[in-house]
């Protein structure tokens, strides 16, 4: 079971005991990650009250895509798909480690290897968290939790890859691509009658570009922090070799260096490293997640805009039909359906967007508070260690 | 304890003073009280002939000086000139003469051309600090402190311009020193080191050199990354501010703006820390890498001295053989000449042996003084560096604790 504090990005999930989902375990084989999806349920729609299945990342994507393509869910914000597990950074490091093995001392090598393993673990935890949150968003949604494909995803104890291939052939990802390229233009171009949606549209479009920028900058910042943590590792390894060289005549400097080197290794490296990953989890992941979530909200607006365009077109078609006196009832039916679709979308859309805002504010608050508390805690720890060091050194 | 010598107008040349100064040295040279600062860099002149003039201020109670608190204006080539004079006087007899800071064509050209930007300001500051450390190290040396060139450098309002600073650059001196090393490698007889101490110490300094270079490179990397972090933090702060503006929930918007402000302040912290990384840690290591080159040079000078002694001995041997041969010929003039030459060579051999013993003795003392100073220097710098880190942490605590209520206020 992963510690509670890692499930930080979204709040109020997994509270409903009728359907509890978590990912207690995951295996990493080369680049493929196999998640163990564990479900506990009191719902009769499931065959068993508790069960686990192995799932790959591609299965999550399949589930997400089928939900997006489902007409009935057009008025809902579909939780963003979890990003692909990215082991690029630790893999690059491992490569560098392999190349530099000849030039490093045994101690340096062991230390770097430990750090590499820690980073691998951090990436691993992150990807598990993100996949878990995706499922929990679904299970806590009143409509989506009842989706048939969701149930299959949770329950089906065979390999899903056959279904995945079929789905791809059916939809070919065509709809998704269309959404991506056209949304901004269409959403912006719609003449809005509803004040609520007008405001939401302006807000979401602007907010999306700002949060995208902030996410990118936060990523750069945490990467710099990681670089510094790595520098401290290298420094401590070199200081170790240096202190070994100092002759025993000068016990003072040997003691000094050993102390300094221990300090660098224990506190700064661990703490800087931890600051880098806590900051990343809280801030960067938060921003990244909500950037994707806002994209999902934008998709909703897009679908509504499409429905409005369809409705307007159907009006025009009806007028034309009435003029010509041909197929009027057909056109009336079509227009009625379009209006109905648009109204349903608007109604559920309003609810979704309001909930979304509340959810976003709560999540930001939680993460910002936790981040500030962690920063204070780490700085205090650092200070205690540093001051201890200074006392020891000055006393000598 | 100090006899005030200012009454003797040319006291520096009096033998009495040399004796006095020798006592001082044996009583432990740490009881010196002198502090030098290099400040107020000022651009003099225009275009490619322009140069930077630095104010060199000395505050001291050492009786050698005419005053207790005085300053002069010096330019970079003056420092190089001082170093070259000291090196030529003391290196070959085994004294570790601190190397002067490196020349930098790129850095100086920018300053000359009049680019008043951050990088040329940083360059001038870096050079100013390096010159200060150079002078402090020079006067900390009990022998060098008393050298008339040093006294003149610190005191004279006018200093004759050092010419041909191309040859006088530190690199030039090191080249000269390296030539000695080459000569050592080409030695006709490989020195049979009867004194294990020298072999051990030489190895120690070789290892130290390698380690310090590695450490220096690592710290330079750290400085670079910390500067990057500062830039990235500043950029993030801006983007957070913009996000805060865009946010329509009032309390969250305020919190995001506050976050932006905190990050801006932290950016400044990173910049300050990068400076500490650089001046307390990186420059210290750079100085010691250069100092150890000077130490290695001194060992090589000892070898050269030994070689000179051996050469004289070999020459003497040849002359003695020649003398023996001449005994059986009827060339009284030539015989006398050879006898005279032998006498001269005997004197040279004796001097060679004395020189070798003297330089060995001097080097032992110098190395011991050098290592003692190095320990003090490192320890002091490490403590100062740790203190800079403590300060950063204190500020971080302050900033984040101030932010916390803002974050909690989001409802």
Strand order in space, largest sheet of chain B: 1-2-3
What is the string of helix and strand elements of chain B?
A: HEEEHHHHHHHHHH
Radius of gyration of chain B: 29 Å
Structural class of chain A: mainly alpha
Percent of residues in helices of chain A comes to over 70%
The helix-and-strand class of chain B reads mainly alpha
Quaternary organization: heterodimer
The pair of chains with the biggest contact is: A-B, 58 and 57 residues
Described by strand count, sense and barrel closure, the largest sheet of chain A is:
3 strands, antiparallel
Instruction: Determine the mean pLDDT of chain A.
Output: 82
Quote the distance from N terminus to C terminus of chain A. Answer: 47 Å
**Largest sheet of chain B, if any?**
3 strands, antiparallel
Key traits:
heterodimer, A: mainly alpha, 3-stranded antiparallel sheet, 9 helices, B: 3-stranded antiparallel sheet, disordered N terminus
Folded structure, characterized:
The complex is a heterodimer of chains A (396) and B (411). Chain A is mainly alpha-helical. Helices cover 73% and strands 7% of the residues of chain A. Chain A contains 9 helices and 3 strands. In chain A, a hairpin with a 2-residue loop joins strand 1 and strand 2. Chain B is mainly α. Chain B has 11 helices and 3 strands, in the order H-E-E-E-H-H-H-H-H-H-H-H-H-H. A 3-stranded antiparallel beta sheet of chain B has the order 1-2-3. In chain B, a hairpin with a 6-residue loop joins strand 1 and strand 2. Chain B is elongated. The relative contact order of chain B is 0.09. The N terminus of chain B is likely disordered. The chains are: A mainly alpha (396), B mainly alpha (411). Chains A and B meet through helix 7, helix 8 and helix 9 of A and helix 9, helix 10 and helix 11 of B. Chain A: This is Sorting nexin. Chain A: Involved in several stages of intracellular trafficking. Chain A: Pfam families: PX, Vps5. Chain A: Belongs to the sorting nexin family. Chain A: GO terms for molecular function: dynactin binding; phosphatidylinositol binding.
């Amino acid at each position: 079971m992963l510690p509670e504090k890692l499930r930080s990005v979204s709040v109020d999930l997994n509270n409903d005991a009728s359907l509890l989902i978590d990912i207690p375990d995951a295996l990493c084989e080369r680049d493929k990650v196999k998640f163990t999806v564990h479900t506990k349920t009191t719902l009769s729609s499931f065959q068993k009250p508790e069960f686990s299945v192995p799932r790959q990342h591609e299965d999550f994507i399949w589930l997400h895509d089928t939900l997006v393509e489902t007409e009935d869910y057009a008025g809902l914000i579909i939780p963003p798909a979890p990003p692909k597990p990215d082991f690029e950074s630790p893999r690059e490091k491992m490569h560098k480690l392999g190349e530099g093995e000849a030039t490093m001392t045994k101690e340096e090598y062991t230390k770097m290897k430990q750090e590499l393993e820690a980073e691998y673990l951090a990436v691993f935890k992150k990807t598990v968290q993100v996949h878990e949150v995706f499922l929990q968003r679904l299970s806590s949604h009143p409509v989506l939790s009842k989706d048939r494909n969701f149930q299959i995803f949770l329950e089906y104890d065979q390999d899903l890859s056959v279904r995945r291939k079929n789905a791809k052939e059916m939809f070919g990802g065509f709809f998704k691509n269309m959404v991506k390229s056209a949304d901004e233009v269409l959403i912006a171009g719609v003449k809005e009658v509803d004040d609520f949606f007008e405001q939401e549209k302006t807000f979401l479009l602007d907010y999306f570009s700002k949060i995208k920028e902030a996410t990118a900058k936060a990523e750069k910042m945490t990467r710099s922090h990681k670089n510094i943590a790595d520098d401290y590792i290298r420094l401590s390894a070199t200081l170790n070799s240096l202190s070994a060289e100092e002759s025993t005549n000068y016990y003072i400097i040997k003691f000094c260096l050993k102390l300094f080197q221990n300090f660098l290794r224990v506190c700064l490296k661990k703490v800087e490293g931890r600051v880098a990953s806590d900051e990343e989890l809280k801030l960067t992941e938060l921003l990244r997640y909500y950037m994707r979530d806002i994209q999902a909200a934008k998709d909703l607006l897009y679908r509504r805009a499409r429905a409005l365009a369809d409705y307007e077109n159907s009006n025009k078609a009806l007028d034309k039909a009435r003029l010509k006196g041909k197929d009027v009832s057909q056109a009336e039916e079509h227009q009625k359906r379009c209006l109905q679709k648009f109204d349903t979308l608007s109604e559920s859309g309003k609810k979704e967007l309001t909930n979304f805002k509340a959810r976003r504010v709560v999540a930001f608050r939680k993460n910002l508070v936790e981040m500030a508390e962690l920063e204070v805690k780490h700085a205090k720890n650092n200070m205690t260690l540093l001051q201890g060091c200074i006392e020891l050194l000055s006393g000598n | 304890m100090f006899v005030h010598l200012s009454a003797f107008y040319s006291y520096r040349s009096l033998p009495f003073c040399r004796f006095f100064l020798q006592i001082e040295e044996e009583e432990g040279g740490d009881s010196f009280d002198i502090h030098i600062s290099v400040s107020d860099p000022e651009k003099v002149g225009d275009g490619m002939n322009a140069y930077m003039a630095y104010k060199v201020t000395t505050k001291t109670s050492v009786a050698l000086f005419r005053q207790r608190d005085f300053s002069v204006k010096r330019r970079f080539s003056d420092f190089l000139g001082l170093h070259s004079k000291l090196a030529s006087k003391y290196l070959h007899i085994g004294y570790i003469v601190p190397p002067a800071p490196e020349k930098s064509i790129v850095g100086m050209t920018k300053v000359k051309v009049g680019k008043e930007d951050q990088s040329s300001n940083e360059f001038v500051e870096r050079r100013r600090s390096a010159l200060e450390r150079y002078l402090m190290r020079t006067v900390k040396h009990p022998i060098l402190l008393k050298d008339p060139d040093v006294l003149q450098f610190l005191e004279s309002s006018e200093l004759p311009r050092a010419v041909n600073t191309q040859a006088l650059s530190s690199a030039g001196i090191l080249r000269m020193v390296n030539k000695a090393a080459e000569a050592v490698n080409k030695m006709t007889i490989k020195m049979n080191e009867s004194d294990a101490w020298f072999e051990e110490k030489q190895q120690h300094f070789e290892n130290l050199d390698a380690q310090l270079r590695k450490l220096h490179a690592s710290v330079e990397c750290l400085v670079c990354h910390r500067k990057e972090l500062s830039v990235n933090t500043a950029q993030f702060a801006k983007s957070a501010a913009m996000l805060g503006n865009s946010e329509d929930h009032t309390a969250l918007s305020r919190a995001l703006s506050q976050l932006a402000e905190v990050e801006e302040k932290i950016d400044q912290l990173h910049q300050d820390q990068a400076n500490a990384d650089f001046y307390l840690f990186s420059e210290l290591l750079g100085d010691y890498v250069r100092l150890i080159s000077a130490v290695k040079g001194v060992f090589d000078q000892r070898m050269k001295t030994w070689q000179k002694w051996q050469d004289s001995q070999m020459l003497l041997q040849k002359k003695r053989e020649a003398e023996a041969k001449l005994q059986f010929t009827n060339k009284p003039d030539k015989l006398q000449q050879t006898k005279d030459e032998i006498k001269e060579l005997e004197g040279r051999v004796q001097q060679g042996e004395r020189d070798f013993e003297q330089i060995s003795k001097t080097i032992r003392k110098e190395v011991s003084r050098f290592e003692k100073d190095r320990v003090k220097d490192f320890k002091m710098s490490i403590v100062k560096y740790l203190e800079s880190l403590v300060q950063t942490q204190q500020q971080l605590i302050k900033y984040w604790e101030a932010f916390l209520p803002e974050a909690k206020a989001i409802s």
